[in-house]
Write a structure and sequence with these properties.
By secondary structure, this protein is α/β, with parallel strands linked by helices. It is built from twelve helices and eight strands. The chain has an eight-stranded mixed sheet with strand order 3-2-1-4-5-6-7-8, sandwiched between helices. It starts with 5 loop residues before the first strand and ends in a 12-residue tail after the last helix.
């Protein structure tokens, strides 16, 4: 992997997090990393910070790269693929993090037997604590998945699943940090309401969530059992639990994941319809 040239197309928040993770892991070198950013000023700032080459041309970044990471929005991925297609090595591996954009459409846009891996990380990649799911396209072999796993393990947990489950993953872990941020904000507000300062309330909330998550991770115990260990008879926790159940907290979270999953499917369908639509016909020239 150290000798492989890696290009990150679209060095936004997620792309930059991947670059930092690759460098921090020690197996990627600055000399073999290149990224693209549409805004030259931001690209120059990123180049100065990380010590890597950054260009405002996607095809220039992709040229001769062994691994090309497509860190762009699904709405523009089709046009980016057409832009980089002439510059790709014949043996290049493409990794896409675009929600709702299947590997089959990437393969079709590029033609040939291009190995494609689809990844769904989340925003916690910026602190190297992402939950990422990988799936292989039709032409991706075990070694391609291994390369992709190595990249995304530099920013957190990696799981491999079949592609039909990627929309559900997008709804759960892809959008998941937002749910947690909402919970943090709500609990912090609650602490302020009952008399705590904002700083204290937020600090206690965050540490409580971190501690509870660590317990669930390390004890490998069902969350229902852990919940019961906190709710003593007639105590404060069972009173709070009654309020949560009465207000349908679990149903609200389940609905949120379901809606986000459906939206991921819609993004894929919209992008597919857009790419399948014929180009607009030019109006006939008027005779003078």
């Amino acid at each position: 992997m150290v000798a492989k040239r890696i290009a990150v197309i679209g060095a936004g928040n997620m792309g930059t997090a991947l670059l930092r993770g690759i460098l921090a892991s020690g197996w990627g070198t600055k000399e073999n990393l290149i990224a693209s950013h549409p805004k030259r000023v931001k690209g120059e700032a990123l180049s100065s910070e990380l010590g890597i080459a950054v260009t405002d041309r996607n095809d220039e970044a992709a040229r001769q790269a062994h691994i090309v990471i497509l860190a762009v929005k699904p709405q523009i991925l089709e046009s980016v693929l057409q832009e980089i297609r002439p510059a790709l090595r014949r043996d290049a591996l493409l990794i896409s993090i675009a929600a709702g954009f299947p590997t089959s459409r990437i393969e079709s846009a590029l033609a040939g037997s291009v190995p494609v891996v689809r990844a769904m990380p989340n925003v916690a990649a910026v602190v190297r604590a992402s939950a990422t799911v990988l799936c292989a396209g039709r032409h991706a072999a075990a070694e391609h998945l291994a390369d992709a796993r190595r990249i995304f393990e530099s920013i957190g947990l990696v799981v491999e699943l079949p592609e039909y489950q990627l929309d559900a993953v997008t709804g759960l872990s892809g959008s998941g940090p937002m749910y947690v941020f909402q919970i943090i904000e709500g609990l912090s507000d609650a602490g302020v309401r009952v008399g705590l300062s904002r700083d204290v309330s937020t600090a206690l909330t965050i540490q409580t969530l971190v501690g509870a998550a660590r317990m669930a991770e390390e004890l490998k115990t069902h969350p229902g059992v852990l919940k019961d260990s906190v709710t003593s008879p007639g105590g404060t926790a069972i009173a709070a639990l009654h309020s949560l159940e009465r207000n349908r907290l679990r149903a609200i979270l389940m609905d949120a994941v379901e809606v986000a999953t459906a939206r991921s499917m819609e993004l894929g369908q919209t992008a597919a319809a857009t790419s399948a639509a014929p180009p607009p016909r030019k109006a006939p020239a008027r005779r003078r």
